[in-house]
User: Fold this.
Amino acid sequence: MQSKSLGKRGYCLDTHSLVWYFTGSKTLSARALAILEEVFLRKAIGVIPSIVLLEALHVSYKHKGFVFPKFLDSLRLPNILIYPLDKEVLSEGFTLPEVLDIHDRVVVATTLVSDTKLVTKDEIITGSGVVDTVW
Amino acid sequence: MKTAVINIKTDSKLKLEAQKTASEMGLTLTVVINRYLKNFVESKTISFGTSSENEKSPYGIFSGVEISEREINAVKKSWQKGLLS
Assistant:
């Protein structure tokens, strides 16, 4: 059975980094863009917390140009893992600082359990110092 | 999930190369083969395209759609409002 730990060789992707990558937004930092290109060109492992997919779905309700099925289809790569909100993630989530909201808690817990770096701009997450972040 | 075993014959060198490549990506050969099988069932196609065809980046495929950080945060807030109220 494969270990869930990716030994910090992979990247956990937060909602805004993925959304801005797909929309080609200039708000995405050069470093985040380079990492996402690595992931989508199959040169690095990408981990996507399940809640990120749900957030992207809700974003797509408001922006019809963000076509959710097409987005999902683009994630069907062997190096991209959709990480479930399983017992391990939940347990990790229970130990995190109160400052993190429910969504951030799932994202941070997933990053910790998968032992990856989190691609995020979120200042609360970055400021919490709980996970390695890149932007 | 009920599992089944598939025995296939392949070139031993190819098997080793595939295992090495999968390992470098942090994956097992089983994960890779299962992903290919799922893709085959879902798409009903077999892709033998060149790597450049297969590795096309989806960067900017929804270009023209402007989604602000505030809007993304609003999604979180609307959910939490529902969860906590």
Remarks:
- Chain B has a mean pLDDT of 78.
